[in-house]
Amino acid sequence: MSVSDGYKAGYIAIVGRPNVGKSTLLNHLIKQKISITSRKAQTTRHRIHGILTDAQSQFIFVDTPGFQMRHRSQLNQTMNRVVLQSMQNVDVILFVVEAGQFGREDEQVLEQLPENIPVVLVINKIDRLPDKLQLLPFMQKTADLFDFVDIVPVSALQNKQLTDLIETIRRYLPENPPVFAEDEITDRSERFLAAELLREKVFRQIGEEVPYSVSVVIEQFVLEGNLRRIHACILVERENQKAIIIGKQGKKLKDMAMQARKDMEVLFGSKVYLEVWVKVKSGWADDTVALKSLGYE
Ligand code: GDP
Ligand code: MG
Question: Residue 2: inside a domain, yes or no?
Fold first, then answer.
């Protein structure tokens, strides 16, 4: 395909403070669950590309970890750097805010927006506004803050106005042949995605009890015909966190593994046999005592 065919392809960064719904928006835009979402801020630590391809255009989305201004830890600094980098090499930026809410954290992200790339203001969670009449003044107020090329109110969760948003983005994509094959939805490896899906379940199940020090490692990922055999390990810092994750009679771990396995089966389009272990990163010799979760045995 040559450029003269009018095909468009480009990169789109999704930025905004934690919790505005960036990952949800990405998931719903590409209709696949590839980026993890959670009520807690900061669950997305890596850049994730999600790809939407249609007859006229290819949209390559970059979901970014939220800007974190409050805590200047090493992790946060690294994440902020990733966000800044991800804004530099894109064709369009979606600056996501929450309807009716514009605070200090939003402002800090706004200050980082580059001048030379079109920025679309996406007002998310419009379903949450108790009174729809509140939207217009909020739009007017935020429109004055920056030279946005467009403003699109949406509800990512309820798939409202997402088609409008896609058409808006399309206008700002450059003419290019597609970068990825049509059936690719992400350039992340399945191994990575499997870990992300499980990590999301851990965050959802455990709530406030376990800090962000939890990580997931895929120790084995084997393709056997139409079956993916996956061994995953949830790494925690302390013995008591292990107990929390496993739950009474292993119930919590079982639930998490089952939900993660279902998501993986949908995403990979195959059967998945998943075994999950919980290990304490630094500790005693019996660290590796673990529960086997249910695959579909
Ligand atoms: P991120 O930190 O910006 O990536 O935010 P997430 O995508 O993880 O979403 C944070 C929370 O907001 C989750 O509980 C989502 O379900 C919720 N959320 C996202 N979009 C919407 C929306 O359009 N409406 C409502 N009511 N909730 C939403
Ligand atoms: Mg996110």
Answer: no
Same domain, 56 and 144: yes
158-185 confidence digits (pLDDT tens) = 999 999 999 999 999 999 888 777 666 6
Specify the ligand 1 atom closest to the Cα of 20. 3
The structure's pTM equals 0.66
The CA-atom distances, in angstroms, between 214 and each of 72, 209, 210, 217, 260 are 20, 11, 7, 10, 16
Q: Which of 142, 172, 202 is the last residue of a domain?
A: 172
Q: Which domain holds residue 61?
A: 8-172
Q: Is 62:11 a contact under the CB 8 Å cutoff?
A: yes
Which ligand is closest in space to the CA of residue 97?
1
Residue having the nearest C-alpha atom to atom 17 of ligand 1: 21
**106 Cα: distance to centroid of ligand 2 (angstroms):** 15
Pocket test for ligand 1, best of 17, 19, 123 (most atoms within 8 A of CB): 19
CA 290 to each of CA 44, 247, 251, 282, 287: distance values in angstroms, whole numbers, following the listed order: 26, 12, 13, 15, 8
Phi then psi for residue 107, to 5 deg, are -60, -40
